[in-house]
Specification:
The protein is α+β, with helices and mostly antiparallel strands. It has 3 helices and 14 strands. Strand 3 and strand 4 form a beta hairpin.
């Protein structure tokens, strides 16, 4: 954030764990000091709260007995993120929920210097890469010494699944999955074509009428699934772990939409 269009003059920022950032935010609000907070809510979801947005000011001029309106100071916000390419395109941020932010017909959006159509209210989902992305190998080493390496592959060179592979499918039954019924159905169609032994784990929020359960793949009709309540990814995995007991699988597939918005701990009271 900054009051100048020069990014080199932006305000200093601090990166903190989510709990510490929330605590600092509440302390600043209680002191009536307006903070700004970018909070990570899920693997690919963030909540941005920007303050202060300076309001217009009414100025009274006693010499001519008139009031004038003075615009508040401009506030600039820059957001930088790293992402991986998808089929020669770069995914852009997607708007999950909008609160207390306004734009009008004078709002201008540009991508790589090109102005977007005036009727577009947000960014497109993707932008074409101007230079073909380099596919590189990535490795992450954890504190216990284990290393996970991801290597780029070409889809048509992937080997076939072994015979009688055992799969666990964990399905998010949150309300946010309702618009994605067709996607869930397409995933089940693709799974049905596999030569695999599949168990389905139907998760459920605390507000869902049904309990989490483990069912056979053949007993699941995607069209009959009831989506209700909300869950974050950690709850999906916890319910899967509780239900599977001693069952072992070659792989576990999680079908979700990564919408953990506002599912973090709220302020008491």
């Amino acid at each position: 954030l900054g009051n100048s269009a020069d990014r080199d003059e932006r305000f200093a920022h601090r990166v903190s764990p989510r709990g510490a950032a929330q605590q600092l935010y509440r302390e600043e609000v209680s002191r009536q000091v307006d903070p700004a907070l970018v909070e990570q809510l899920g693997p690919r979801q963030y909540r941005l709260r920007i303050f202060p947005i300076e309001p217009r000011r009414m100025l009274w001029q006693g010499d001519n007995q008139r009031s004038t309106v003075e615009e508040g100071d401009l506030l600039h916000m820059w957001l930088t993120y790293a992402t991986v390419s998808e089929r020669g395109q770069w995914p852009l941020p997607r708007l999950a929920e909008l609160r207390n932010v306004y734009w009008d017909d004078l709002t201008v959006r540009t991508i790589n210097g090109e102005t977007l159509p005036a009727d577009r209210r947000w960014l497109p989902s993707y932008v074409e890469a101007t230079v073909p992305p380099d596919h590189a190998k990535h490795s992450v080493t954890f504190g216990n010494g284990q290393t996970v390496t991801a290597r780029p592959v070409i889809l048509n060179t992937l080997p076939d699944l072994p015979a009688d592979v055992r799969l666990a499918v964990v399905l998010d039954r949150s309300r946010s999955m309702e618009p994605r019924r067709s996607f869930v159905a397409s995933q089940f169609d693709a799974l049905a074509a596999l030569d695999a032994d599949i168990d389905v784990y139907l998760t459920a929020s605390a507000f869902h009428a049904a309990d989490p359960e483990k069912v056979a793949f053949a007993d699941v009709d995607p069209a009959e699934i009831v989506y209700f309540g909300g869950q974050d990814p950690a709850q999906l995995l916890t319910q899967f772990s509780d239900l599977r007991a001693d069952a072992t699988y070659d792989a576990a597939l999680i079908i979700t939409d990564a919408t953990g918005y506002q599912l973090g701990e709220g302020q008491d009271g």
